[in-house]
Design brief:
Strand order of the largest sheet: 1-2-3-4-5-6-7
Largest sheet: 7 strands, antiparallel
Distance between the termini: 42 Å
Structural class: mainly beta
Radius of gyration: 16 Å
Order of helices and strands: EEEEEEE
Number of helices: 0
Helix content: under 10%
Number of strands: 7
């Protein structure tokens, strides 16, 4: 599976918006009210393998500037982990010498 999410801020709703799409036809639209300390939690609905699903994505800031991202889906009334990752800012490319 290959997917991409986009995060933006909607000033009319006063909420952050996360949109997810992947190459299996999956998608989700989730919202968050904002940062609570070092944590930002999105929740909303989408589709996975042709089935409606409620999702939750949590981002936690670390002191080194990275983020931990956990993905969960509600299945049979329980939150189930769909994976996690640590996101780090890519190093700047080396300056060219002339």
């Amino acid at each position: 599976m290959d997917g991409m999410f986009h995060i933006t801020y909607d000033p009319a709703q006063k909420r952050y918006v996360l949109l997810w799409v992947d190459n299996t036809g999956g998608w989700s639209q989730e919202t968050a009210t904002g940062w609570e300390g070092d944590k930002l939690v999105f929740s909303g609905d989408g589709s996975m393998m042709g089935q409606k699903v409620t999702g939750r994505d949590t981002f936690i800031k670390a002191t080194d500037g990275s983020f931990k991202h956990t993905m969960e889906a509600q299945m049979n009334g329980q939150w189930t982990s769909m994976g996690d990752e640590t996101c780090k800012k890519a190093a700047a490319p080396a300056a060219k010498k002339e």
